[in-house]
Each structure stands twice: as structure tokens, then as C-alpha cells.
Amino acid sequence: MPTSPRVPASLAHAPFRGSTAVAEGLLTKTMLRSPVWRRLLPDVYTHHELPLDHRLWCTAIGLILPPGTAIGGPSAAHLWGAELLHPDPPVSVVAPRDAWMNRHPRVSTHHTVIGEGDLTVLHGLPVTTLERTAFDLGRRLARVDSLILLDGMSALDVGAAAEMARQRFRWPETARLREVLGLVDSRAESPMETRLRLLMHDAGVPAPHPQFEVHDHRGRLIGRVDLGWPFAQVAAEYEGDHHRGRDQFRRDIARYSALREAGWTVFQFTANDVLRLPRQTALRVAAELARRS
């Protein structure tokens, strides 16, 4: 029976430069051509069993970035903890305006001014700092998309990002950035919760408390709601696909029953309500808030 090819431990879990592995005696050029290794980019390989997710692509592209460039934009936000806006996007890279970058379908390059202190290292990769990532996203992306990503960057210091916007007020779209920064709330637990909160804001509905915990008169936790208006005992829940599982469905039913017994009105919204019927969705909540206040 043929033996399995040797897989060096240092190469089994992340992309690597093929030339480096050969120079260090870990592999030969013939070994690199075996099915054990998957070629991602020129001279960049990975073990064939590793999932090709966005983080892996960021790591692979980080191996070939020229000095002074870095992972930025939505990809940096993902590395800082935010969910991806779209499935399988290209890796976003920031580069100085005079830097040359080879074109590749897996890379989306934004040439810009990179200030001192705008870059750092995260998980061994050159990335834009939290503040610079927020600074770029809030100016360059649609408002809802940038807010989703900024909400997902839980370690973001909004004050530091606002200070960067103040110091660079002559840069394009800093006014839009400041508006987005004023809406950031790291308590949001999903992109659709952020969308639901934003449509309420745009409709003039009073600001809710994300992830609000409801307790009974003895102080015992009844449940946590996505968006809560405690002054009127009104809650809004986003019902994503994960709520359709049998066990989760049963837990949701028990929680909603307990909330209603405690005097709360609970709205359950779907993607259709949020994406296609935003006005009607906001009006339903606004009407109930007015009635109960």
C-alpha cells in the first residue's frame, strides 16, 4: 500500500510561499506539484484540505503584498470581526498611490494616501488599523453596508475614528463618515439586526436598545430581544434562517410567550419585512409605541 505524502506541520494549516518551503528543505518542487497542495497564486500554496474561506485568501494574498500595502476595506473589517457583506468577495487591499500592484481577480486594490500609524499587524497580516478601516468604510461604502461592518468591529473605538475624521476633514465624504459613526452600536449581533435598527432610525422611530434583557418583577431574566423599547414594553425580533430549526423554534415560542405574559408586544420580522417592506415595518412599530406610550 502506498504511503501518504509527508505533510510538514508548519505548512498544514495556512498558505505558504512555495519557494520558501523548497529553500528550507520542507518540500521539493516535485512535491509541490502533487495533489496534496493547492496552488492559489503564483508561488503561494495551501494544503488541499483547508477550506478556501475569505480569511485564508487574506492570508494567501498577504504573503505577496509589497511593503507599504495592507489588507483594508471590507476584508480588514472581516479580520477585525465583522461578517462578510457578500459571499466569496475579492480581498480588498490598500496601497500608496505610487505603488504598483499586479492585477488579480482575487484582489481589489484601492490606491490612497496611507498615513503614519494607519497600518498594523493582525494575525501576522498587514492590515489597516481599526480606526483607518472605519475611516475608509464610512466614506467609500453605502451607508447601510458601512454601518453593518462597523457594528461588527466590536473593538472599534468610535471616538478615535471620529478624531481621525476630524483631523482629515478635507478628505472626501467625511461628513457621511461622521453620520455613520454616530449610528454605530457594537451590540448588534447580525447584519440584519443592523438593517432593522437603521430603518427604524430613518423612519424617525425612537432609538431602541439592542440586545435588551427583559426581567420579571423579581429580577429574573425572561429573555433578551434584538431591539427593545422598554418605556413602552415593545420588542422587535429579526427571524433569520437559524430560527427555523426545531429546537430553536421551540425556544423562541417559549420566550415570546413569556415576554407577552409579562406585558410586552413582540414583533417578529423576516428578511422580506426588512428589505422589501421597510416603511410598513417601521410604521407597525411606531404605531404600537404611540399606542402604548
Automatic annotation (TrEMBL):
Superkingdom, taxonomy of origin: Bacteria
Protein name, entry field: DUF559 domain-containing protein
